[in-house]
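Researcher: Re-running this chain for the archive, since the previous output was lost when a drive failed. Same request as before.
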Amino acid sequence: MIENLPPYISLTFGLTTVAILLLFFWTVKNSSSQLTRQNSIKIIIGLTLWLIVQAVLTLKNIYNSDKNSLPPKILLFGILPAILTIIVLFTTQKGRQFIDSLPLTNLTYLNIVRVPVEIVLFWLFLNKAIPELMTFEGRNFDIIAGITAPIIAHFGLTKGKINRTIILAWNFICLGLLLSIVANAFLSAPSPLQKFAFEQPNIAILNFPFSWLATFVVPIVLFGHLASIRQLLK
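Model: Regenerated structure tokens:
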């Protein structure tokens, strides 16, 4: 836990994480595949268990204890398994069937959570837990994706008033924004790979509950964009 951090910051981020969990459950429940809908409870239980595992690892200071380990422990035990899961989904037949059954509108609405995430990041910067470059006052423009998501979802996908090519371009742009902040967050975190922000490093990512950002929230948003792009290209 980060010392002297106002409780409302951790609470807001915790609620945001629960919100994206419920939004993903809502997405799966609205799948066009009956099998996927039937497995929605199993999926939500699996994701909840993943959150619990990450919480335990963080609270046990596994991620925070040895900042000189290579690769960083949060990459090895938190980020890599999530990325491998996404790769498996996109490279197996059943995985692709699952992806293609998810409603594009729901996947787009998932990005709304990026607004409270950006607010939390700004609060963390004010409390010296992350560098300014990770906020919308620095290099992070990810909040644009969260603000525009309901517009794209409603007018583009529900009403059909926005060209599909524009929706595809929006997904690529927002994916780029996501990858940009991920790179900045990773390279400013305390590790042998840190490249900048040494005066105020990204310590939040190694503490509870903010480790969920790298190990759960970002992978879900990343999956949502990749799934959307696949569907739009088809």
